[in-house]
Amino acid sequence: MAFIAFVHKRIGPGRDFINIHTSGQELNLFEVQRYMDVLKHVGIEDEDLTLMRPLPNPEEKHHITELIDDLRKRANKIVTISPYSLSTLKDWEPEKYTRLIDRLHENDCEAILIGGTSDMSKSKKDFNNAVDLVGKINLRESSEVIAQADLHVCGCTSMLHVASSVNTPSVAIYGPTSPVQWAPRHNCTVITHNLPCSPCYKKDVHVCDNNRCIKDITVDEVWEAIANRLNLSVD
Fold first, then answer.
1. Which CATH fold would you assign to the domain 60-230?
2. What is the tens place of the pLDDT at every residue in 146-184?
3. What percent of the chain has pLDDT over 70?
4. In the predicted model, is pLDDT for residue 36 greater than 70?
5. Please, what is the average pLDDT of the chain?
6. What does the DSSP assignment read for the chain?
7. Ramachandran bin of 102, using left for φ above 0, alpha for ψ from -120 to 50, beta for the remaining angles
8. Domain extent listing, the chain
9. Helices 139-148 & 158-165, crossing angle to 10 degrees?
10. Can you say how many angstroms the Cα of residue 88 is from the centroid of all Cα atoms in its chain?
């Protein structure tokens, strides 16, 4: 479109009809940095890669604060979990999350599930051992829940970046996508097996028949990362 409109400067990572090329689709470059590289070509330079959070209104913030305060009366730590992404290829198995949540309860931690309305039916089927807010709160409220939590656990999802934006520590489970490209740059413990075939993920394209990169990650591995973050016993 820019080419057809005779736009003088056509800046981007692509090849066709672009006359100023920036970083392409390399998997060894943080995605935010890729966009910042585009801005440099129009005279905007900023080394701050911090993402902005969705801010709740006062009523939403009050509602979430009451919820968290109530949960802290019966738990020492609050851990938010986003078990679903836009693709099941990136998702850790629900039964492993269930076992992880049970271990959290054994260590005086409360788990809160967060997700979109499209995940509500899956959440009701997969989990009955956590505070289930999947599809029940909006993005602003979700960001506030994560902001008031002690830790966030998920795969390669948008909520991982929300956690980064509110400076809540996170444990991220990566399989077919590149943590170098997609994981936050601070306060995030990445768990990945770095298989020779990974990363391989392409949106809506099933390129693997076993998904070992995510399925081989154990509950013990994730628990160890959580325990280290929350100063809990690994055993």
1. Rossmann fold (3.40.50)
2. 999 999 999 999 999 999 999 999 999 998 888 777 778
3. 77
4. no
5. 85
6. -TTTTT-S--EES-STT-SEE---S-TTS-HHHHHHHHHHTTT------PPPPPPPPHHHHHHHHHHHHHHHTT-SEEEEEE---S-GGGPPPHHHHHHHHHHHHHTTEEEEE---GGGHHHHHHH-SSSEE-TTTS-HHHHHHHHHHSSEEEESSSHHHHHHHHTT--EEEE-SSS-HHHHS-SSSEEEE----TT----BTTB---SS-HHHHT--HHHHHHHHHHHHT----
7. alpha
8. 1-49, 60-230
9. 60
10. 14
pLDDT of residue 3: 45
Q: What is the pLDDT of residue 4?
A: 45
18 is written with which tokens? Answer: 């672009």
Q: Which residues contact 98 (CB under 8 A, 6 or more apart)?
A: 126, 127, 129
Cis peptide before 56 (omega within 30 of 0): no
Q: Report which secondary-structure segment, H or E, holds 35.
A: helix 31-40
Residue type, 117: T
